[in-house]
Amino acid sequence: MDFSKYVVYPFQEDSAINMATGYAERSYRAHWHTYGEITMVGTGENNLFRVNQTVYTLKEGDFVLAWPMEVHEVIDADRMTTLVVQFSNAFANSLFDFQRIMHFYHDKHIIKKDEHPKLCEGLAELILEMKKIFFENGRDRETKCCILLMRFMMLLDDHRKEFVESGETSVGYSRETLKSIFMVSDYIKNNLTDDDLSQSTMAAKAGISKEYFSKMFKEITGTNYSHWLNMIRIEKAISLFSGDKRTLTEIAMLSGFQSIPTFNRVFKEFKGISPGEYRSMYTEKASAANDTVPV
């Protein structure tokens, strides 16, 4: 197939979705950005990708999920046939179910075709349909691709039981109960400097017992409350890295950390490097626009 017609466009903040393929270079530097990225791995048996601190060896048809503000890197892979979908974080956050699914898969960055054949087959069909629509550049391209992206996320949701750890159970919750959890999570995201964001207080705000809140929260997000809260604080700090020139101390305080040592320790636990090192890896739109495109 001739990939020379494909052009990789720098992602624009006013776009909901973007797609890229056809790179001759086999690597791309470690970086992060405010939009999410889904990669369908191209040809070859030993394609090397990294997300955060983990390096993965992947085959054709496997998937890489790099959520907004996560460091990721193409170490060595066939980027000529690899397909990359980028989606706006603002678009994702505007949809209740999109948020819910991202929460569950937040720490699940790899989907291997050998382990999840039916899921990967369905995801590939959606990505290839999206590719056709995107590069034809026809009418309503963005809307059609966003519909396919939502179907992609819904398919992930349909297969979530495959990713539940052994011993855990899957319990259905009413939409009203789910909304109460996301009401609380939205409150936390907007009030990270509050003095009391304890699980007991948040359970009371949701109108349910602490025990039920804890069980439900872990099933919905895939992690426990304290881990999730630290994750949200780190995401807030990272979002401030890209937006202004505040000092790391100011950013730590605005993210709800009570001291710089705590901020540094928690940040390194999540990201493997210091806040300062992470900040230096931000990919600006201007630099993205200068990246080499296929010829």
Commentary on this structure:
This protein is of the alpha+beta class. The protein has twelve helices and nine strands. It has two domains: 17-163, Jelly Rolls (Sandwich), CATH 2.60.120.280; 175-279, Homeodomain-like (Arc Repressor Mutant, subunit A, Orthogonal Bundle), CATH 1.10.10.60.
Task: Indicate the overall shape.
Answer: globular
Helicity, in percent?
Answer: 40-55%
Cross-sheet strand order for the largest sheet = 1-8-3-6-9
For the record, what CATH class of the largest domain applies? Mainly Beta
- The CATH topology assignment of the largest domain is Jelly Rolls
What is the mean pLDDT?
85
Largest sheet: 5 strands, antiparallel
Beta-strand share of residues: 5-15%
What is the alpha-carbon Rg in Å?
20 Å
> Low-confidence spans: pLDDT under 50, at least 5 residues?
1-9, 285-295
What number of domains?
2
Number of helices: 12
What gap, in angstroms, lies between the N and C termini? 14 Å
Question: How many strand units?
Answer: 9
- Which class best fits the helix and strand makeup? alpha+beta
At CATH level 2, the architecture of the largest domain is Sandwich
State the CATH superfamily name of the largest domain: Regulatory protein AraC
Question: How would you summarize this macromolecular structure in one to three sentences?
Answer:
The protein has helices at residues 89-93, 96-104, 117-136, 141-158, 175-190, 199-206, 210-221, 225-241, 248-254, 260-271, 275-279, 285-289; strands at 17-20, 28-31, 36-40, 47-51, 54-58, 63-66, 72-76, 83-87, 110-111. With 295 residues, the protein is α+β, with helices and mostly antiparallel strands.
